[in-house]
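User: Fold this; tokens only.

Assistant: Input:
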Amino acid sequence: MVVVAETKKVDITQHALVPKHILLSEDEAKQILSKLNVSINQLPVITATDPMAKAIGAKAGAMVKIERTGPTGKSPYYRRVV
């Protein structure tokens, strides 16, 4: 008899250690880039193959907002998808 172990999929978007990732629309991205006075090429990158980028459907050229929570509150971080 062969026993096949069941694999459970974990929803990483709900994990306590993973900060919230939000895929921004083109308009939202333009507003933020304008407000910060930077170009999208100046942002740090996140790859399209990153598990969270895949989970939210981020494609190359998009912009992602990451909301990190720390002792002083929430801080937004922005990444461009490559």
